[in-house]
Amino acid sequence: MSSTDKGAVIWDVDGTLVDTAELHFQAWVEVARRLNKPFNRADFAATFGRRNPEILHQLFGSNLSEREIDELGTQKEELYRAAARNGVDLLPGVRTLLEGLQGGGFRQAIGSSAPRKNLDLILELTQTQPFFETIVSSEDTQRGKPDPQVFQVAAERLGIPPSRCLVMEDAVAGVQAAKAAGMKCIAVRFVGHHPKSKLAEANADLIVETMAEISIFTVRQLLD
Question: What does the angle CA 31 – CA 37 – CA 43 come to, to the nearest 5 degrees?
Protein backbone atom coordinates (compact mmCIF):
# COMPACT_ATOMS: atom_id res chain seq x y z
CA MET A 1 0.00 0.00 0.00
CA SER A 2 1.40 3.41 -0.96
CA SER A 3 1.53 6.39 1.43
CA THR A 4 -1.15 8.01 -0.72
CA ASP A 5 -3.43 5.05 -0.06
CA LYS A 6 -2.67 5.21 3.66
CA GLY A 7 -3.41 8.93 3.77
CA ALA A 8 -2.16 11.97 5.60
CA VAL A 9 -2.45 13.62 8.99
CA ILE A 10 -2.54 17.43 9.10
CA TRP A 11 -1.70 18.96 12.48
CA ASP A 12 -2.79 22.24 13.95
CA VAL A 13 -0.08 23.49 16.33
CA ASP A 14 -1.26 25.64 19.23
CA GLY A 15 -3.35 23.51 21.56
CA THR A 16 -2.65 20.36 19.57
CA LEU A 17 1.11 19.85 19.31
CA VAL A 18 1.93 22.26 22.14
CA ASP A 19 0.13 24.42 24.68
CA THR A 20 1.32 27.99 24.13
CA ALA A 21 -2.05 29.61 24.78
CA GLU A 22 -0.87 31.52 27.85
CA LEU A 23 2.07 32.95 25.88
CA HIS A 24 -0.34 34.15 23.18
CA PHE A 25 -2.70 35.57 25.79
CA GLN A 26 0.00 37.58 27.52
CA ALA A 27 1.24 38.90 24.16
CA TRP A 28 -2.28 40.08 23.27
CA VAL A 29 -2.66 41.66 26.72
CA GLU A 30 0.46 43.72 26.07
CA VAL A 31 -0.68 44.78 22.58
CA ALA A 32 -4.08 45.83 24.00
CA ARG A 33 -2.33 47.76 26.79
CA ARG A 34 -0.31 49.71 24.21
CA LEU A 35 -3.58 50.56 22.44
CA ASN A 36 -5.34 51.43 25.74
CA LYS A 37 -7.94 48.80 24.88
CA PRO A 38 -9.49 46.12 27.11
CA PHE A 39 -8.62 42.47 26.54
CA ASN A 40 -9.73 39.55 28.68
CA ARG A 41 -9.93 35.76 28.71
CA ALA A 42 -13.30 35.79 26.96
CA ASP A 43 -11.86 37.89 24.12
CA PHE A 44 -8.99 35.44 23.83
CA ALA A 45 -11.21 32.36 23.78
CA ALA A 46 -13.45 33.93 21.12
CA THR A 47 -10.55 34.60 18.75
CA PHE A 48 -7.96 31.89 19.46
CA GLY A 49 -6.84 30.01 16.34
CA ARG A 50 -7.76 32.77 13.90
CA ARG A 51 -5.43 34.87 11.77
CA ASN A 52 -4.14 38.12 13.26
CA PRO A 53 -5.92 40.49 10.83
CA GLU A 54 -9.25 38.90 11.71
CA ILE A 55 -8.50 39.02 15.45
CA LEU A 56 -7.39 42.66 15.36
CA HIS A 57 -10.45 43.76 13.41
CA GLN A 58 -12.79 41.87 15.72
CA LEU A 59 -11.21 43.12 18.93
CA PHE A 60 -10.06 46.61 18.14
CA GLY A 61 -12.32 47.84 15.35
CA SER A 62 -12.59 47.78 11.58
CA ASN A 63 -11.08 51.26 11.19
CA LEU A 64 -7.51 50.01 11.58
CA SER A 65 -5.44 50.52 8.44
CA GLU A 66 -3.61 47.67 6.72
CA ARG A 67 -0.31 49.15 7.92
CA GLU A 68 -1.55 49.32 11.51
CA ILE A 69 -2.77 45.72 11.27
CA ASP A 70 0.65 44.59 10.05
CA GLU A 71 2.53 46.55 12.74
CA LEU A 72 0.32 45.35 15.59
CA GLY A 73 0.45 41.77 14.37
CA THR A 74 4.24 41.95 14.16
CA GLN A 75 4.47 43.34 17.70
CA LYS A 76 2.26 40.60 19.06
CA GLU A 77 4.21 37.79 17.40
CA GLU A 78 7.57 39.19 18.50
CA LEU A 79 6.32 39.23 22.09
CA TYR A 80 5.07 35.66 21.72
CA ARG A 81 8.30 34.32 20.21
CA ALA A 82 10.42 35.99 22.88
CA ALA A 83 8.41 34.19 25.56
CA ALA A 84 8.37 30.87 23.67
CA ARG A 85 12.16 30.79 23.49
CA ASN A 86 12.19 30.13 27.25
CA GLY A 87 10.97 26.63 26.46
CA VAL A 88 7.99 24.78 24.99
CA ASP A 89 7.04 21.12 25.52
CA LEU A 90 5.00 18.76 23.37
CA LEU A 91 1.60 17.79 24.77
CA PRO A 92 1.12 14.27 26.23
CA GLY A 93 1.21 11.51 23.64
CA VAL A 94 2.22 13.73 20.73
CA ARG A 95 5.76 12.48 20.09
CA THR A 96 4.73 8.84 20.31
CA LEU A 97 1.92 9.46 17.82
CA LEU A 98 4.17 11.42 15.45
CA GLU A 99 6.66 8.55 15.48
CA GLY A 100 3.94 5.94 15.04
CA LEU A 101 2.39 7.72 12.08
CA GLN A 102 5.76 8.19 10.43
CA GLY A 103 6.64 4.54 10.97
CA GLY A 104 3.24 3.51 9.62
CA GLY A 105 3.79 5.34 6.36
CA PHE A 106 1.35 8.22 6.90
CA ARG A 107 2.28 11.59 5.39
CA GLN A 108 2.22 14.49 7.87
CA ALA A 109 1.85 18.25 7.50
CA ILE A 110 1.25 21.38 9.56
CA GLY A 111 -1.89 23.44 8.87
CA SER A 112 -1.95 26.50 11.10
CA SER A 113 -3.21 30.08 11.25
CA ALA A 114 0.08 31.13 12.87
CA PRO A 115 2.87 33.01 11.08
CA ARG A 116 5.64 30.86 9.61
CA LYS A 117 8.27 32.23 12.02
CA ASN A 118 6.20 30.99 14.96
CA LEU A 119 5.80 27.53 13.48
CA ASP A 120 9.48 27.21 12.61
CA LEU A 121 10.39 28.20 16.18
CA ILE A 122 8.01 25.68 17.76
CA LEU A 123 9.19 22.84 15.52
CA GLU A 124 12.81 23.76 16.29
CA LEU A 125 12.23 23.92 20.05
CA THR A 126 10.38 20.59 20.08
CA GLN A 127 12.70 18.96 17.51
CA THR A 128 9.78 17.81 15.37
CA GLN A 129 10.70 19.30 11.97
CA PRO A 130 11.59 15.88 10.42
CA PHE A 131 8.02 14.58 10.86
CA PHE A 132 6.41 17.13 8.53
CA GLU A 133 6.68 17.22 4.75
CA THR A 134 5.07 20.62 4.39
CA ILE A 135 4.07 23.56 6.57
CA VAL A 136 1.09 25.77 5.76
CA SER A 137 1.03 29.03 7.72
CA SER A 138 -0.90 32.30 7.71
CA GLU A 139 1.29 33.57 4.87
CA ASP A 140 -0.02 30.79 2.62
CA THR A 141 -3.71 31.61 3.01
CA GLN A 142 -6.07 34.54 2.58
CA ARG A 143 -8.88 33.18 4.74
CA GLY A 144 -8.70 31.88 8.30
CA LYS A 145 -10.51 29.01 9.99
CA PRO A 146 -13.37 28.04 9.91
CA ASP A 147 -12.67 28.47 6.20
CA PRO A 148 -11.08 25.20 4.98
CA GLN A 149 -8.33 26.86 2.91
CA VAL A 150 -5.41 26.06 5.24
CA PHE A 151 -6.16 22.33 5.19
CA GLN A 152 -6.93 22.30 1.48
CA VAL A 153 -3.53 23.84 0.72
CA ALA A 154 -1.80 21.24 2.91
CA ALA A 155 -3.58 18.38 1.12
CA GLU A 156 -2.73 19.83 -2.29
CA ARG A 157 0.95 20.12 -1.38
CA LEU A 158 1.01 16.53 -0.17
CA GLY A 159 -0.86 15.31 -3.23
CA ILE A 160 -3.42 13.53 -1.03
CA PRO A 161 -7.19 13.79 -1.65
CA PRO A 162 -9.17 15.40 1.19
CA SER A 163 -11.06 12.16 1.80
CA ARG A 164 -7.73 10.53 2.76
CA CYS A 165 -6.75 13.32 5.19
CA LEU A 166 -7.24 13.45 8.95
CA VAL A 167 -6.89 16.75 10.84
CA MET A 168 -5.70 17.06 14.45
CA GLU A 169 -7.38 20.08 16.06
CA ASP A 170 -8.36 21.56 19.40
CA ALA A 171 -10.60 24.47 18.38
CA VAL A 172 -14.21 24.58 17.17
CA ALA A 173 -13.24 26.76 14.19
CA GLY A 174 -10.51 24.27 13.28
CA VAL A 175 -12.90 21.32 13.41
CA GLN A 176 -15.35 23.25 11.24
CA ALA A 177 -12.56 23.99 8.75
CA ALA A 178 -11.52 20.33 8.57
CA LYS A 179 -15.08 19.14 7.98
CA ALA A 180 -15.67 21.87 5.36
CA ALA A 181 -12.57 20.56 3.57
CA GLY A 182 -14.12 17.08 3.44
CA MET A 183 -11.62 15.64 5.92
CA LYS A 184 -11.87 13.55 9.08
CA CYS A 185 -11.03 15.34 12.33
CA ILE A 186 -9.89 14.38 15.81
CA ALA A 187 -10.39 17.07 18.46
CA VAL A 188 -8.15 17.03 21.54
CA ARG A 189 -9.34 18.73 24.73
CA PHE A 190 -6.14 18.80 26.81
CA VAL A 191 -5.85 22.59 26.87
CA GLY A 192 -9.58 22.86 27.56
CA HIS A 193 -10.49 26.00 25.62
CA HIS A 194 -13.55 24.42 24.03
CA PRO A 195 -16.19 22.22 25.72
CA LYS A 196 -16.78 18.74 24.39
CA SER A 197 -20.34 19.65 23.43
CA LYS A 198 -19.18 22.43 21.10
CA LEU A 199 -16.57 20.20 19.45
CA ALA A 200 -19.26 17.57 18.94
CA GLU A 201 -21.60 20.16 17.42
CA ALA A 202 -18.81 21.02 14.98
CA ASN A 203 -18.91 17.34 13.92
CA ALA A 204 -15.52 16.17 15.17
CA ASP A 205 -15.22 12.48 14.27
CA LEU A 206 -13.50 11.70 17.56
CA ILE A 207 -12.95 13.75 20.73
CA VAL A 208 -10.12 12.81 23.10
CA GLU A 209 -8.61 14.32 26.22
CA THR A 210 -5.00 13.73 25.12
CA MET A 211 -3.13 12.43 22.08
CA ALA A 212 -2.08 9.45 24.21
CA GLU A 213 -5.55 8.01 23.46
CA ILE A 214 -4.79 7.84 19.72
CA SER A 215 -2.82 5.21 17.82
CA ILE A 216 -2.18 4.59 14.14
CA PHE A 217 -4.96 1.99 14.42
CA THR A 218 -7.34 4.82 15.39
CA VAL A 219 -6.22 6.83 12.37
CA ARG A 220 -6.63 3.87 10.02
CA GLN A 221 -10.13 3.21 11.32
CA LEU A 222 -11.24 6.80 10.73
CA LEU A 223 -9.75 7.00 7.24
CA ASP A 224 -11.12 3.61 6.20
Answer: 80
